[in-house]
Structure formats: structure tokens, C-alpha cells
Amino acid sequence: MSTTVVATPRVVYWHRDLPPVDAESMGQHTVEATSLRVPGAIGHRDEHWTRCQRDLMAQTDHRLGEEIVRLGGRYAHVYKEAVDTRHDDARGEAWLHGIFEYTLYR
Questions:
Q1: Are 19 and 52 in contact (CB under 8 A)?
Q2: Which of 6, 42, 64, 95 qualifies as a FRET site for 86, CA 20 to 30 Å off?
Q3: Contact assessment for residue 52 and residue 58, using Cβ atoms and an 8 Å cutoff
Q4: Average pLDDT of 26-32?
Q5: For 12-38, what is the mean pLDDT?
Q6: 94 within 8 A of 29, measured Cβ to Cβ
Q7: Residue 65 in contact with residue 74, Cβ under 8 Å?
Q8: pLDDT-based confidence at 43, cuts 50/70/90?
Q9: Residues paired with residue 39 on neighbouring β-strands, in sequence order
Q10: Half-sphere exposure of 10 (CA within 13 A, CB side)
Q11: What is the dihedral of CA 5, 7, 8, 9, to 10 degrees?
Q12: CA–CA separation, 56 vs 61, rounded Å?
């Protein structure tokens, strides 16, 4: 029995990781994403924070992938991010919200 591993081509590059040198800039854009909601409050670096942070990064990667396709690009290089906590006191929930600035490349 043999197993074939298919590598997914990398399309999102974060901060100091740069896209291939032959990539050509198509402009700068912004994308927003939110994490799942958790009960209670989020304390920096507690269990809820870690869970929400993982989900926020997964949602951001997904959103960036969609935007790359929508805008006709090939890569995105995220160079700036701002993440904050959000609260819905009426529901007793909290989540993370992120704004990510990136350059789109072809």
C-alpha cells in the first residue's frame, strides 16, 4: 500500500515570510475576520483566547484565499494586523476580531 501526499501550494505569507521574488504586486487590500464566540470573557492567553486565536487565524486564511481568487491574484502577503476582543454582554459571549492589511501579488 502506498500513500501519496499532495502538497497544497502556499498562497498566504505572513510578515517576514515573503512571496516568490518573481511575484508582481497588484495593490494593497484589507480583510476582516472574526473567531468563534465563547461563553464569558476572554483573558489574554487563557484557554478561550487560544481557542479563539486559532479559529481567527483559520478564518483569516480562508478569507484571504477567497480574496486572492476574487481579485485574480496568486499570493497575499500580510504585513499588518490588529486583533481585539469583542463582547456581547446580553448573550454573555466574547470573540476575537481582526483586521489584516496585505499586498496582493500575481
A1: no
A2: 64
A3: no
A4: 98
A5: 97
A6: no
A7: no
A8: confident
A9: 93
A10: 9
A11: -160
A12: 9
Q: How far, CA to CA in Å, does 7 sit from each of 4, 10, 22, 92?
A: 10, 9, 21, 41
- Extract the C-alpha cell encoding 56: 481567527
Distance CA 46, CA 28 (A): 33
What's 10's DSSP letter? P
Amino acid making up residue 47:
E
**Virtual torsion, Cα 31, 34, 45, 77, nearest 10 deg:** -20
pLDDT value at position 78?
98
Query: What grid cell was written down for 33?
Result: 475576520
Per the CB < 8 A criterion, the answer to whether 81 and 99 are in contact is: yes
* pLDDT at 40 exceeding the cut of 80: yes
